[in-house]
Amino acid sequence: MKIIRRSVLAMLAAPFIAVAGLSSAPVQAADVVIKLAHPNVPQHPMGEGFEYFKELVEKRSDGEIRVDIFDSSKFGNFDSVIQGLQTGLLQMGSASGPNLAPFSDAFLIFDMPFLFPSYEASDLITDGPIGQNAAKALEKTGIIGLGYIEIGFRHVFNNQRPVEKLEDAEGLKIRASGSKAHVATLQALGMNATPIAWGEVYTALQQKTVDGIDIDLNLAWFNNFPEVNKNLTLVGSIYSPHLVMISKMFYESLTPEQQVLITEAFEEMKIFERNKIRENEKMIIEKMKESGVQIVELSPDERARWAEATKVVYEEYEDRIGKDVIEEARKTMAGK
Question: Global pTM?
Answer without folding.
Answer: 0.89
